[in-house]
Amino acid sequence: ILNVEQSPQSLHVQEGDSTNFTCSFPSSNFYALHWYRWETAKSPEALFVMTLNGDEKKKGRISATLNTKEGYSYLYIKGSQPEDSATYLCAFAGTASKLTFGTGTRLQVTL
Amino acid sequence: DAGVIQSPRHEVTEMGQEVTLRCKPISGHNSLFWYRQTMMRGLELLIYFNNNVPIDDSGMPEDRFSAKMPNASFSTLKIQPSEPRDSAVYFCASSLGQTTYEQYFGPGTRLTVT
Q1: Of the four listed, A39, A98, A101, B9, which is most buried by Cβ atoms within 10 Å?
Q2: Per-residue pLDDT of chain B in tens (114 residues, 90 and over written 9)
Q3: Quick count: other Cβ atoms within 10 Å of Cβ B27?
Q4: Which of A30, A43, A45, A106 is most worth mutating to test chain B (most B CB atoms within 10 A of its CB)?
């Protein structure tokens, strides 16, 4: 069973704060690492797919980094807004066919 | 494009009944995934199709579950007979290829088995 762990489980920040969370995954047999944003009552929405060690991706105020040698990825949100409130999922692929999802970090941004 | 389409959105059925969930992937996507989401286990892959062929069904819980993809634009997940522990949200997702491509999720089917 692959272990994909995310921390913290939940996070509560104020508008304007910058924040980051961690995804840990097996450091062997790396294929890809995905980040998804999942709002309540909706379905997961892709943020990034990263495949190379040292990859850095950015979309607006959200960015992610990848370290495949030590088995972790960070997701950063700069200047959090209430609309950033969601669960952020990472998913690890050790093969071409299967993603294993973490349990997510639940972010709540208040005014 | 309308995105990934799933039906029904909600299904309530009695234990022992057959349940069929349906999915239409995004046109042009050659990979389709069925996931189940529960409080206990989170989001877990049930089965993955590539070019309509099942590639990895190691996540299918038991023989009561079966999935088909008769053509590039349609897939079904069937549970027969259904049990209360099958109650969950079932998502279908599609992508342009294997795990190096982002996956696009449908709205999900919330299944309740009483």
Answers
A1: A101
A2: 689 999 999 999 999 999 999 999 999 999 999 999 998 888 999 999 999 999 989 899 889 999 999 999 999 999 999 999 999 999 999 999 888 899 999 999 999 999
A3: 10
A4: A43
